[in-house]
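Example 5.3 — Response regulator
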Amino acid sequence: MARILLMEDEVDQAVMLSLIIEKRGHQVDIAASADEAIAKADATAYDLVITDLFVQQKGVQVGSGGLRLIGFLRNGTRTGPVATERSVPIIAMSGVLGGPSEGHFLKIAETTGANIRLEKPVPPQKLHAAIDDLLKG
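Solution (predicted structure tokens):
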């Protein structure tokens, strides 16, 4: 069983993804924003982080949330009692439909430190395969 941090601002998506992950016996902590995810990652040692790249901030869809979390996990200061290891595996997801920004942000996420990038909606089998691949490594 792994402890997984999931950053997803859409409640329905967060619940669905959490249930899919927990079905395999993993423990999931959900964060709805980069600030909340960073605070949790600073206080708890996670085995894996799954982040949505686009989050709502004051009603506007922006791409900085997931990238900010990835940047913190790879480069940020860790001051919490059980700080997250820099090597924590990261899955970055994007659910933007159409346009060049979807692939663009997924590539940026990979460049900045995500281990795997997935386009939403993610089939449960694909999500499980990505999780299994990162946890065994």
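Remark. Strands lie at 3-7, 27-31, 48-52, 55-57, 60-62, 90-94, 116-119.
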